[in-house]
Design brief:
Blueprint: E1 12-16, H1 24-35, E2 40-43, H2 58-70, E3 76-79, H3 95-100, E4 104-107, H4 112-120, E5 126-128, H5 142-154, E6 158-160, E7 169-172, E8 175-184, H6 185-190, E9 204-210, H7 214-226, H8 229-232, E10 235-242, H9 255-262, E11 270-272, E12 285-287, E13 290-294, E14 299-302
Parallel strand pairs: 1-2, 1-3, 3-4, 4-5, 8-9, 9-10, 10-11
Antiparallel strand pairs: 5-12, 6-14, 7-11, 8-13, 13-14
Helix pairs in contact: 7-9
Length: 304
């Protein structure tokens, strides 16, 4: 795996919208938030477009991704938001060109689809990170900002720790090591059966989601289970599952019960409540880096 060069004060970063359109009232503050990181934002056309629930048509959004990577004056790429639509771009992106032009790439949620392919096909370390028009535009807490800056400007190595007072919890005890992969559960699950399917063999699988009832989480986890993705992985990290409570709790399992019934029998070291996902505070995760985890002590370390 190739770790891109860290950013620096004055670095030029592309702002692209590979999925949903940017709410107009958030556009200006999102650009300002990037400037306040001492970076020079280069705004690509998809950030200004809307095509139904997309930020422009598929070709436009894919062209922006290709152009941002191909431009040697661009030092990094920020997906300005998630939403829906990145998976529609897979056959329009020049992955071979991207492999020759590695650079910092940040985003999460629907951007999971791009992370998986950038990691697996391009051999590029990428960052599961808060985005300009979803979190950064409104300001974030010190923990979230510190984690983001460490990843962008210093490289993400060393111990990953939750915020004070928010301990991770042991689901299955043990130790494991492997390349970190994953992201949003919905996108990871929907990659199955495609040529862009997630590879979990000997990897540390991170999952999070938002706005899904427990039965939906159950279904997606079971899909991964039947596909052997938990059998193949080295360990499991569960992040934030925000707004995932049942509408009628008396007729539902809890999320913890879902995890216990589907994941515990896999006997893979597993932690839950990692502060990462559709929530604040949230850490930035280096997808593609080697992670070592002791799920008994709750210690997680980025090794290289």
């Amino acid at each position: 795996m190739f770790t891109p060069k860290p950013l620096f004060a004055g670095a030029r970063v592309a702002l692209i919208a590979p999925a949903g359109p940017v709410p107009p009232e958030r556009f200006g503050p999102a650009v300002t938030a990037v400037e306040e990181l001492s970076l020079e934002p280069v705004i690509f056309e998809s950030c200004r477009r809307a095509h139904g629930y997309f930020a422009g048509n598929d070709q436009l959004r894919a062209d922006d991704i290709n152009a941002a990577f191909a431009d040697n004056t661009i030092d990094g790429i920020f997906c300005i938001r998630g939403g829906y639509g990145a998976q529609r771009l897979m056959n329009l992106i020049d992955w071979n060109m991207i492999r020759r032009h590695p650079k910092v790439f940040c985003g999460y949620s629907d951007i999971t689809a791009l992370h998986i392919v950038l990691n697996q096909q391009c051999g590029l370390v990428t960052y599961h990170a808060p985005m300009p028009s979803t979190e950064l535009y409104a300001g974030v807490d010190d923990y979230t900002m510190s984690s983001l800056k460490k990843a962008l400007f210093g490289g993400k190595t060393g111990e990953l720790q939750n915020p004070y007072g928010m301990p991770v919890k042991t689901l299955v005890g043990g130790c494991a090591k492997g390349i970190l992969t994953g992201g949003n559960l919905s996108l990871v699950s929907s990659s199955l059966g495609t040529c862009y399917e997630i590879d979990t063999r000997n990897r540390m699988l991170f999952l999070e989601d938002v706005g899904e009832e427990p039965y939906r989480i159950d279904g997606m986890l079971n899909h991964l289970k039947m596909a052997g993705k938990f059998r193949d992985c080295a360990g499991i990290l569960l992040g934030s599952f925000t707004d995932c409570a049942a509408e009628d709790p008396e007729k539902s399992l809890t999320l913890k019960q879902v995890f216990e019934e589907l994941l515990v029998p896999e006997h893979k070291p597993a932690l839950m409540d990692l502060a990462c996902g559709h929530s604040l505070p949230s850490m930035t995760l280096p997808l593609g880096k080697v992670i070592e985890m002791n799920s008994i002590s709750g210690k997680i370390t980025v090794l290289d």
